Each structure stands twice: as C-alpha cells, then as structure tokens.
Automatic annotation (TrEMBL):
<dbReference type="InterPro" id="IPR036866">
    <property type="entry name" value="RibonucZ/Hydroxyglut_hydro"/>
</dbReference>
<dbReference type="Pfam" id="PF10996">
    <property type="entry name" value="Beta-Casp"/>
</dbReference>
<keyword id="KW-0378">Hydrolase</keyword>
<dbReference type="GO" id="GO:0004521">
    <property type="term" value="F:RNA endonuclease activity"/>
</dbReference>
<dbReference type="GO" id="GO:0016787">
    <property type="term" value="F:hydrolase activity"/>
</dbReference>
<dbReference type="InterPro" id="IPR011108">
    <property type="entry name" value="RMMBL"/>
</dbReference>
<dbReference type="Pfam" id="PF07521">
    <property type="entry name" value="RMMBL"/>
</dbReference>
<dbReference type="Pfam" id="PF00753">
    <property type="entry name" value="Lactamase_B"/>
</dbReference>
<dbReference type="InterPro" id="IPR001279">
    <property type="entry name" value="Metallo-B-lactamas"/>
</dbReference>
<protein>
    <recommendedName>
        <fullName>Beta-Casp domain-containing protein</fullName>
    </recommendedName>
</protein>
<dbReference type="InterPro" id="IPR022712">
    <property type="entry name" value="Beta_Casp"/>
</dbReference>
<dbReference type="InterPro" id="IPR050698">
    <property type="entry name" value="MBL"/>
</dbReference>
<feature type="domain" description="Beta-Casp">
    <location>
        <begin position="275"/>
        <end position="402"/>
    </location>
</feature>
C-alpha cells in the first residue's frame, strides 16, 4: 500500500443502519501503519453476525478504538474485540465509558443466562429472556473477564480535549465534540499527519437534533475550523421531524385522557435517553400542575434506571433548561412525587395485577424484549389499556404489529387478540432529520475535499448524496461495503 490515509466502512453502510464500524488506516512514508477503529456496533438484524464472534477486519494490527456514543449499534460488538485478540486502548466520552461498562456487564450476564438455560432446558420465556438465543450455535465466549479487560483499557474523555489514541505513534490526534444525540455522544475530529500534510476528518454519526424548542441535550457542536472530509448519517435523509414541543403536549394530553378514563397506560421507550426525555416531559407536566396528584408513574426499565446516575453526573451535556430541572436535588425528572422506580422483578410482575389508572414506562422501545413484553402480553387484549409507541419500529417487530393496528398480535410465538388502544407519539427522535444534517454539513462543517454518506437505508442515503452534491463542490459518496477510499 502507498503511504497515505485510507478509510473503509464495515457496518452502518451500504443500505444498513446498524453495526457501525469505520476503520482509518494511516500508512507512513516508511510504510509503518497506524489503524484506528471508529465505533464497533452490533448488527441486530442479522442473527448470524450478531451472535457470531468474528469481526469483518483484521484486529492484530489495530492500534486503538474510539467510540462515538453508547448506542448498541455503535458499541454492541466491542466485546468481540478481545475475543479476536485485541488488547489495545479504548477512548470515548466519560458518559460513553459508563454506558459501555453497563452494556458489557449485561452482555456477559446474558452469556451466563444462555448457558444456564442450556443446562436446565426450556422454561418460562419470560423468566429467562433470550435464554434460547443461541440454539445449536457456537456460543460467543464473552465473559466478565473480557469486560474487565476492556474497561481497564478504557480512557474516558471530555469534550474538546485533544488526545493521541495510538500511544508512541503520533499520526492521529482525536478530539470529541458534542453531537447532541445521547448523553456523551460525540462528533469525532481526526487530525491525521500524512507525511508533512495534515488531513482533517470529522465523523457526524449519529447527530442529534438542532430543531428542538425544548431539547434535553445540548445542540450539536458546530465550530470546527477547516475540515477536509466528513462522514454524515443518512438515517432520516429526505424526512422531516415533527416539532418536539408537540410530543410533550401530546404526551400530556394522552396521560390526562387515559387517567380520566381509568386506563392502564403502557409506554414503550428505548432505555437510553428516550425514556429520560419522556420523564423530563412528564416532570414538565408535573411542574405545571397538570398531572393528577394521585397518578403513579412506574419506571420499569432497569437499563434506563441505571442511566439516571450517569446523566446526573454529566449535567454539562444537558441543555440549560434541562440543567435547571436536574440541578434541583429535591424534585427533578428522576425524583418527583408521582414517580416510582421499579427495581425488583417481582415488583414489576405485581404491576400487572393493579387496576388503572397508572402509567408504566418500560423497554424495549420496539416492544420485543425486556419487561415490556410481559406487560404487553398481559394487557394487549384488555380494552382498558392504552399502548403508547414513542419510537421507530423495525418492520416485523412486535411494536410494528401494534403500529399497524393489527387485530392479532404475535408475542413470543403466541397469538393475542388486540383490544387495547394504540397511540403513536411522533418526534421523540434523537437523530437530526435530513435537512438538519444537510444544514450541518453545508453551513458548519463545510468539507473541502469530500463527504461520505453512512448509516442510512438505500433511499435516504441517495437523497442525502443528491442533496449534498447539489450544494457542495466536492465529491459525495455513499460508502460501499468492501471498498477502500483513499483520503488526501
Ligand atoms: Zn445512536
């Protein structure tokens, strides 16, 4: 290979959203190399890939791993790195480090659950979620010791503090800038010395919203100086979000109506930040005296509850108005009279016996795993239940069946008649929409040499490419699997 900087995408590309993995390879003039992996996400859609232990690139010459944020499609395959022999450092925001630690602990526990289930045979699917996740397959042997090894080598960083990821080798300098997507999410600027010249590459994947009137997080950082190349997400290419303020009002109205009618209100929400945005909105209603005094809201999502202290520790990542809410130690979105945090599984089970009105917020956001599956199975056939969808539903998942308002819903292989009312609140999205991304690249990043479109289905990616190409005077490429791009 000639001296220079090279880029390859291995996931979150080519019409696939998930499994983000981006490799930057620097070949020095003396032909020594430096290799940085940006993100190591899991491909949820492909079970073979998700459960396998292989990674699609060489790990033996990898020097460092930089993680943009704590969503599973960006960190879910981190555990496979030690399995493939990687012993080097990890970098990410301190909040990302905390989320990775929680995720790895959970994944390692799941391995034990899978193994235990294998020993004792089939059982109650609710008691052993994902227990039969590995039927007849080679088990990935990811265990607590690997999680420990990763965390010992993980350096938590702050925003806007440059660092050298590759130790003695000094070809890369990296800096994290707030992406405004989830707590700790980062746009990463790589400044790479190729011989005597510097190439600056900025990753904008995933980018938060800047159109919110009432954001929970800060808006994405926009001052970068001169940039040569950028990676931009196409998640919502060609689509426009509804006003975030509207979802706050919609939720308040829905809770009010549900309470008046004595309903059991079940809100499906992703455990990382979506749940917290909803809590923040319910707290807004509480402050305005709009929540009935005797209404109990149960947060029944262990993953979301574990993130509460991480958010409280990183208040600087929140918007000014959210900081004001959270800095109050007496009453804040995680602590107000209507809210109960459910920790024990037996308390979660007991909720299903209660009569409405009450609210349960639970994960997963797609209604296909976690405690919400049991709540749904118990109440989907009850016309006294109100089911609230707050996020994207992958075609085929349980939430998508609800969203389609089907008469019959399949939950863990069993068919239920749906009598519960289903309502969708739009615009809790944490990604910038198409126009927001275009605006970010054209008006703030202003790349001088090229743009790479990643993290989008085929149509949104093509929209993003077309739109950016019409506004910029540089090549705009949709990143393709297996292709190597030379930068510079
Ligand atoms: Zn994300």
């Amino acid at each position: 290979m000639q001296p220079g900087l090279y880029y390859q995408g291995y996931g979150g590309i080519d019409g696939v959203l998930a499994g983000s993995k981006h490799v930057f390879l620097l070949v020095h003039p003396d032909l020594t190399t430096e290799k940085v992996l940006h993100d190591c996400g899991n491909v949820m859609e492909d079970e073979e890939v998700r459960l396998g232990r292989d990674l699609p690139f060489r790990v033996d010459n990898l020097d460092s791993v930089v993680l943009s944020h704590g969503h599973f499609d960006h960190i879910g395959d981190v555990g496979k790195l030690p399995l493939n022999g990687y012993r080097g450092p990890f970098f990410g925001h301190t909040a990302t480090k905390a989320i990775v630690e929680q995720q790895l602990t959970y994944q390692a526990q799941q391995q034990w659950i899978a193994k235990a289930a294998e020993r004792i045979g089939e059982g109650d699917a609710f008691r052993k979620p994902r227990a039969n996740a590995y039927p007849g397959r080679e088990k990935p042997a990811f265990l607590q010791k690997h999680a420990r090894q990763i965390m010992e080598n993980f350096q938590g960083m702050r925003y806007e503090t440059p660092f050298i990821p590759n130790g003695e080798q000094r070809g890369f300098i990296a800096t994290l800038y707030d992406a405004g997507h989830i707590i700790g999410s980062s746009q990463v600027l790589y400044e790479v010395m190729v011989g005597d010249s510097k190439i600056k590459v900025l990753t904008c994947v995933d980018l938060g919203r800047s159109d919110c009137e009432v954001p929970l997080l800060r808006k994405p950082h926009t001052e970068f100086g001169a940039i040569d190349y950028c990676l931009i997400e196409a998640t919502y290419g060609g689509k426009q979000h509804a006003d975030r303020h509207k979802s706050r009002e919609d939720l308040e109205e829905l809770v009010f109506r549900g309470c008046r009618d004595g309903k059991r209100i079940l809100i499906g929400a992703f455990s990382i930040m979506r749940t917290h945005a909803i809590l923040s909105d319910l707290f807004w209603s509480y402050k305005r005296g709009k929540l009935p005094r005797d209404l109990v809201i149960y947060l029944d999502s262990p993953g979301a509850a574990k993130l509460n202290p991480v958010i409280m520790k990183h208040l600087e990542c929140l918007s000014d108005s959210a900081q004001r809410d959270f800095r109050n130690r007496q009453e804040n979105p995680f602590k107000f009279p209507n809210l109960r945090i459910v920790r024990d599984r037996k308390d979660s089970v007991a909720l299903d016996k209660l009569r409405g009105p009450y609210v349960i917020i639970s994960a997963s956001g797609m209604w296909s795993m976690g405690r919400i599956v049991r709540h749904l199975a118990n109440h989907v056939s009850d016309s006294n239940s109100l089911l609230v969808i707050t996020g994207y539903q992958k075609p085929g998942c349980t939430g998508a069946q609800l969203e389609d308002l089907r008469g019959e819903i399949e939950i863990e292989g069993k068919t239920y008649t749906r009598r519960a009312e289903v309502v969708r609140i739009r615009s809790y999205g944490a990604h910038a929409d198409g126009n927001d991304c275009v605006n970010h690249v054209v008006n703030h990043v202003r790349p001088r040499k090229g743009v790479f479109v990643v993290h989008g289905d085929t149509e949104p990616s093509e929209w993003m490419q077309r739109t950016l190409a019409s506004k910029l005077d540089v090549p705009v490429e949709i990143v393709r699997k297996g292709r190597t791009y030379r930068l510079g």
